[in-house]
Specification:
174 residues, eight-stranded mixed beta sheet
Length: 174
C-alpha cells in the first residue's frame, strides 16, 4: 500500500498524537494541537503522511520571520520530519520532504534543515546529503546556541548541524 501526503487539516492533531505515541515516542501534551494552530495561522506549513487510515509521519516548514525565531531567519526551515518506525524504508520521508521543499522553493531560493549528530540520526543525515543538503556555515548548535570551539556539550538530541539546499536550476539556466 502506498503513502498519501497531504497538507495538515484542523482535525488531525489527535490522530497524529495517537500514531506518534504508538512508536513509544512522546511529544509534549498538546504538541500536535499547537502544530495545527501554527499551520492554520500561517506561521508554518505542515504535511502528514498516511498509509490507508494509519498515520505514517509528518513534517513542518517554518516560514521566515513567522515562526517566532530570535533572531528571525531569512529562509524557510524544515523541522520535525518524523516517520513512525513500522512505516520506514518506504520513501515516506522523501515524499514529505518533496512537499516541504516544493513549497519553500515556490517562494525562496534556499531551504534549511537541522539534523542531530548522535547515532539516532544516521538515516536522516544520509537522506539529507543524498537530497543535496550541505552545511550552511552556521556550524553546530546545542539547544539553539552556537557551540564554540573547545566547548563541551552533551551528545544528545539538541546537538545539531545546520544544512541548506539551494533551489535546483533548470538545465541551461545559471
Amino acid at each position: 500500500m502506498s503513502a498519501e501526503v497531504r497538507l495538515l487539516q484542523a482535525g488531525d492533531a489527535d490522530w497524529m498524537d495517537a500514531g506518534f505515541n504508538e512508536m513509544g515516542w512522546a511529544k509534549p501534551a498538546g504538541y500536535f494541537h499547537s502544530v495545527v494552530d501554527a499551520h492554520v495561522a500561517g506561521f508554518i506549513s505542515a504535511w502528514v503522511a498516511s498509509v490507508g487510515d494509519d498515520y505514517a509521519g509528518h513534517v513542518k516548514l517554518v516560514w521566515p520571520d513567522r515562526g517566532g525565531r530570535t533572531p528571525p531567519s531569512s529562509w524557510p526551515e524544515v523541522e520535525d520530519l518524523a516517520v513512525i518506525s513500522r512505516m520506514r524504508r518506504r520513501g515516506i520521508a522523501s515524499y514529505l520532504l518533496d512537499s516541504a521543499e516544493a513549497a519553500a522553493f515556490g517562494r525562496y531560493d534556499i531551504v534549511r534543515i537541522g539534523v542531530g549528530l548522535h547515532p539516532g540520526y544516521r538515516a536522516a543525515q544520509r537522506l539529507y546529503v543524498l537530497r543535496g543538503y550541505v552545511p550552511d556555515a552556521r556550524g553546530v548548535t546545542h539547544n539553539g546556541r552556537l557551540v564554540e570551539e573547545g566547548e563541551t556539550v552533551p551528545f544528545d538530541d539538541d546537538l545539531v548541524l545546520h544544512l541548506e539546499k539551494r533551489r535546483p536550476t533548470s538545465p541551461g539556466t545559471a
